[in-house]
Amino acid sequence: MSTRQRYRLRNHSTGREIVLEAEPEEVYLDRDTGEELEVVGKVLPLAPSESRLPWAVEHLRFCPWCRQMAQKDLNDCPTCGRRMGPLGTPARNG
Q: What ranges do the domains of the chain cover?
């Protein structure tokens, strides 16, 4: 389980972005330009989470039980707590 929060940081002048587990009081610099990186937002799921995948369409699937979205790398649905089948199996009706 990941207990550290990941953030999206951006170099204002180049627009380049990175995602990393950042500490609140630390200053992070772009390795190419040396400019300070600006925190743009927190990456979902928020820490602590059992998933390491960011919430993006390509990393999500629907729970066959409650029809809520869950990350593909989880075995149990974070909403209803029930076991989800392996990827590629047909969804249950009902």
A: 1-49, 51-89
